Amino acid sequence: MKNRSLILVLMVFFGAFLMNQGCTKTQRYRMSEDGKESANLIYPSFIEVQSFDGKSVEGLLSGIIYEGKKEVVFSSGTHTVVLRYYDIWDIDDNDHEKVYSNLITLRFDAEAGNRYKIDVDVPKDRQSALKLASHFDPTIIDERTGNRVSY
What beta strand segments (E) does the chain contain? Predict the structure, then answer.
C-alpha cells in the first residue's frame, strides 16, 4: 500500500512537471544570469543547439516535450554555437520521419543587452524540411539592426 501511494505521488509530480515544461511560451536556458551584462539568443523549436561555448544547452526532456521558442541567456563577448536542424515529420497516420541536418558551428560577438536570433527558413512540409536539412545554412542576426553577426 505504501509503495502504491509513493508511485501515485511521483506520477502526479512528474505529470505536473511535464505540463509546466510544455506549456511555457519560451524555454529559457541560462549560461549566465540575466542582467545588464547579458545577451540573449532566440531560436525556434526545430533548431537543436548541441552546445554553447562547449557546454551542453538542451536536456533530453526539454527537447522532447517543448515545442515553442527557445532562448539562451549568456554574457557578452565572443561565443561559439553548435547546432542543427532537427524535427519529426508525419508521413501518414502510422509513420513518421526524423529529419535532421549535419552539425553547424557558428561564431559571433555579442554585446551586452542585445538580442540575437538564429535566422533560417521555416519548412512548411516534409519535402521542404528534407531540402533544408540537406542545405542547412543558418545565420545569427542582431534583432535590433537585422544585421548578420555570425561568421
Answer: 26-30, 38-43, 47-52, 55-56, 69-75, 77-92, 95-100, 104-110, 115-119, 139-142
CA atoms of 142 and 126, how far apart (whole Å): 29
Going 51 to 129 to 65 to 114, the CA torsion angle's sign is positive
Indicate the pTM of the whole model.
0.75
Q: What rounded mean pLDDT belongs to the chain?
A: 84
Kindly report, residue by residue over 63-90, the tens digit of the pLDDT. 545 567 899 999 999 999 999 999 999 9
CB atoms within 10 A of CB 137: 9
The three three-digit cell numbers of residue 2, written as one number:
505504501
Give the CA distances from residue 127 to residues 11, 68, 71, 83, 132, in Å, rounded to whole numbers and listed in that order: 39, 22, 27, 21, 9
